[in-house]
């Protein structure tokens, strides 16, 4: 499984978390939350711990963080974090700005679990590789836009179009 741990937090207050493996990921994740750049600015960062990488995405004061295998790269974990952040904000909205620690854990830890499984195991989770596969199978038209212009009109060179307009 590529993504082994995830949480959503406001500052250093963990609102929900889920772990797919018995590790010390929770303790390390809290240290990562404390190390995130101050000021509440939006950020995307990654920290390495042994053979795992902690990826964090902070937007509008809400941080989504996950621990993934180093082999997972950055694209899949950050796609996961984008998805989780969107789902969390859509579900809880402004309530997340004042919620107590673990207030959303009962409901949202199941979402974390499901999405961790999806992004770790489903090949459709990687949109870029999915698109590459569709292109190689001929499922997507990769010709540049505008290729459906009238072929009969192509015999007129653009230089001669100036003669169609009255000259003053």
Automatic annotation (TrEMBL):
Gene3D superfamilies: Longin domain. Residues 7-112 form the Longin domain. It is a single-pass type IV membrane protein. It is found in: Endomembrane system. GO terms for cellular component: endomembrane system. Its main location: membrane. This is Longin domain-containing protein. The gene is gb17744.
């Amino acid at each position: 499984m590529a993504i082994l741990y995830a949480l959503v937090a406001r500052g250093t207050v963990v609102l929900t978390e889920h772990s797919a493996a018995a590790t010390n990921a929770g303790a390390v994740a809290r240290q990562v939350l404390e190390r995130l750049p101050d000021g509440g600015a939006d950020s995307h960062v990654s920290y390495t711990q042994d053979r795992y990488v902690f990826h964090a995405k902070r937007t509008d004061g809400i941080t989504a963080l996950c621990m993934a295998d180093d082999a997972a790269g950055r694209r899949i974990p950050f796609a996961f974090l984008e998805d989780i952040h969107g789902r969390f904000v859509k579900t809880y909205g402004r309530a997340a700005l004042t919620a107590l620690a673990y207030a959303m854990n009962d409901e949202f830890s199941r979402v974390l679990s499901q999405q961790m499984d999806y992004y770790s195991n489903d090949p459709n989770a990687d949109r870029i590789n999915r698109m590459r596969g569709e292109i190689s199978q001929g499922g997507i038209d990769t010709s540049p836009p505008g290729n459906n212009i009238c072929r009969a009109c192509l015999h007129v060179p653009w230089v001669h179009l100036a003669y169609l307009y009255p000259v003053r």
